[in-house]
Amino acid sequence: MKRPEDCETMPEVRAGIDRLDVALVRLLVQRAGYIDAAARVKARAGLPALIVDRVEQVVQNVRQTSMAEGLDPDLAEALWRQLIDWSIAREEAVLGKSDTAKGE
């Protein structure tokens, strides 16, 4: 795959984007596997799907990583909050909806 700065035509750009999209989907599939594991672990531990402190920790981690890597941290936060909402809904499908917890 050509680096973005080496692309000279739209087909080269599109090919790079398409390859990255496949990689991103594969990473999201792996992340979903961890969400499923979290639901199993939380079920055994009696924890709710939504743990507010953990959500904010994940968001802060993503913002810090984004700043370090040169991505707009507001964009990253918005994307991750959507991803987190989806993840919590996925866990709630297993655990059921319950009160939120402050810690793990």
Automatic annotation (TrEMBL):
Matching InterPro entries: Chorismate_II_sf, Chorismate_mutase-related, CM_dom_sf, CM_II_prokaryot, Isochorismate_pyruvate-lyase
Signal peptide feature range: none
Classification via Pfam families: CM_2
Residues that, per the record, bind substrate: R14, R31, K42, E91
Alphabetized UniProt keyword annotations: Isomerase
Domain of life: Bacteria
GO biological process, one term: chorismate metabolic process
Top class in the EC scheme: isomerase
EC number: 5.4.99.5
Gene Ontology molecular function terms on file: carbon-oxygen lyase activity; chorismate mutase activity
Ranges of residues in domain Chorismate mutase: 4-95
Entry-linked PROSITE patterns: CHORISMATE_MUT_2
PANTHER family xrefs: CHORISMATE MUTASE
Protein name: chorismate mutase
Provenance organism: Pseudorhodobacter turbinis
